[in-house]
Amino acid sequence: MGIPAWVWFTVAAVAGVAGFALLATDRAQRTARNRERRRWAALRGWQFEETDHVLPTRWEAGAIAYYGTGLARDVVAGSTFTADGRRQVYVLDHETGGKVNSVLVGVRCRRVLSVVIELWLSTVPFQRDNDKMPMPDLLGPVGSRYAFVTDVPAARKIITPDLIDAAEEIGGDVTVVWLENDWVLAAAPPNSSPARLERLLRDIGELADVIDPFDPDPSEREEPVAEDDEGGEVYRPSFGRKQP
User: For residue 239, is it within any domain?
Assistant: First the structure.
């Protein structure tokens, strides 16, 4: 005896309603996250952009190599103070395949490192198949994380006890922290709150201070600055511009 047609119709209708509900929920969450991120940027005096296709191409390692280049959603750009001076920052939702896989937080240094260092949690399946950026060499444990590097001798000089201590403060919800060119970056869980991102920015800033200590010589500054109305330094980023 065959299954009546109305049963199949009912199943299809239920599946359609469920799919619509999931889509509506996802859209509502994205809208709420967009508003929250936008308010946070306004409170900090930072710039906000809903979508940036070029920004993720600035990096190749860490979460970018693992998930793919993708695109940036709900991007916040500006600068913040660390113990060793003001640094450029980015916060963005990293989206690939129509899904946000992580929130990327980046703090820029003044100097370019000659080695890429990735610090992965041991619980993460960090192996990847990426011809453009294959998995670097395993250096070994660094605190609670495993270090993968493109140049072992150079990395050993950078991974000091101070760096290990700073990396340990970042938290077990951050799957990977990596150093690439003149950036220190981290991948936080999707839907991380502004309060969590504020703490992560401070932690990443401390890590940047370790590898890029303050140099009082203004001629070595790499980022242009402008004066605000109160005489302070304000970084004015340009979205979509891939800088060297």
Answer: no
Domain that holds residue 85: 46-211
pLDDT for residue 2: 63
- The answer to whether position 6 is within a domain reads no
How many Å apart are CA 185 and CA 118, to the nearest integer? 10
Sequence-distant (6+) residues with CB within 8 A of 242 are: 54, 57, 58
Domain presence at residue 219: no
If one counts every other C-beta atom within 10 angstroms of the C-beta of residue 43, the result is 9
Count of domains for the chain: 1
Residue 123: its pLDDT value, please? 87
Q: Are 133 and 60 in contact (CB under 8 A)?
A: yes
Question: Which pLDDT score is estimated for 95?
Answer: 97
What pLDDT does 124 receive?
A: 83
pTM of the predicted model as reported, rounded to 2 decimal places = 0.76
Write out residues in the chain with pLDDT < 70, as ranges. Answer: 1-30, 126, 130-131, 215-244
Residue type, 36: E
80 domain residue, yes or no: yes
135/80 Cα distance (integer angstroms): 31
Count Cα neighbours of 162 within 13 Å in the Cβ-side half-sphere.
Answer: 10
